[in-house]
Amino acid sequence: MLGRGLLAAASLAGALLTAGIASAQQTLEAIKARGQLICGINTGIAGFALPDSKGVWQGLDIDLCRGLATAIFNDPVKLRLVPVSSSTRFTALGTGEVDVLFRTSTQTMLRDTTLGLRHAVTYFYDGHGFMVRRASGVQKAADLRDATICLIQGTTNEQVTADYFRSINTPFKPLVFDRTDQAAAALQAGRCDAFGTDASQLAGTRATLPDPKEWLILPERFSKEPYGAYVRRDDAQWFDVVRWYTYAMIEAEEQGITRANAEEMRRTSTNPNTRRLLGVTPELGESLRLDRAWAFNAIRALGNYGEMYDRSMGPDTAVGLPRGPNEIWTRGGLLYALPMR
């Protein structure tokens, strides 16, 4: 696993050299000239990115991509979604195949310091877990001695799983796949005794299995897995756009600005913070080289962060994942928008 990681890092470093410095400070301009944002997404996981029965992609990451396109163009359709695997996602970003990753990607120190990329801001907090067949009788991860565990190549979950079982001196057999749907099929077919990945992705996987009640997500969490939007390190201005767009969606929820009331609040609010966020005064948009109504347009089209979350994985969805740490800070969660002034 370490060898694969080193090879991936070397491959990306070489790709970044070929990309050159020409892209520095030009991403937003290139997007505008192209007339389209290109967003890297998961190859398929319910709650984050999965085509519906009509083939239309849905999920939290998809809404964040659509909202960013709207902030730039005032049009969520000016967007191309590019599914990328865990093992190719960072290369796709580094070489310019995509402009940004909203793709269930954990922020880690080595990713931030060695890949020529930057994570813009945390938009989802998670932790590594395991899912087993309920009838197996397994109640905790330590019960998985000598078990075959499905894992996804190129993820932090490979290392987390190996580190955990090494720490308790318990052998296991990894069975590695490129995509989540492949691992889910192997789990269902009995090729694996457990599936190890982040708990939200386990919930998404369970929701798509024929009988979700057959599967148990063990309660233990073995890591911190904060998901962040990733951009190339050579463009500070584009980093600012992605970072502050994400904060704007969280700030909108903090202020109670929704898809339904955004227009009225823009017209009637006397709160200086609300007026800045919704573009009544122009300074936030000007600082990002966007239209003054950039955040207003995104909120009016997609809603605030909480609306995106509830639509994709809230209690009324098949995923049914409580917000927990992904609640805003005023309600006991970890999401906190930096001051937008």
From TrEMBL:
Gene3D superfamilies: Periplasmic binding protein-like II. Pfam families: SBP_bac_3. Residues 36-265 form the Solute-binding protein family 3/N-terminal domain. This is Amino acid ABC transporter substrate-binding protein. Belongs to the bacterial solute-binding protein 3 family. GO terms for biological process: amino acid transport. Keywords: Signal, Transport. The keyword 4Fe-4S does not apply. The keyword Translocase does not apply. Residues 1-24 form the signal peptide.
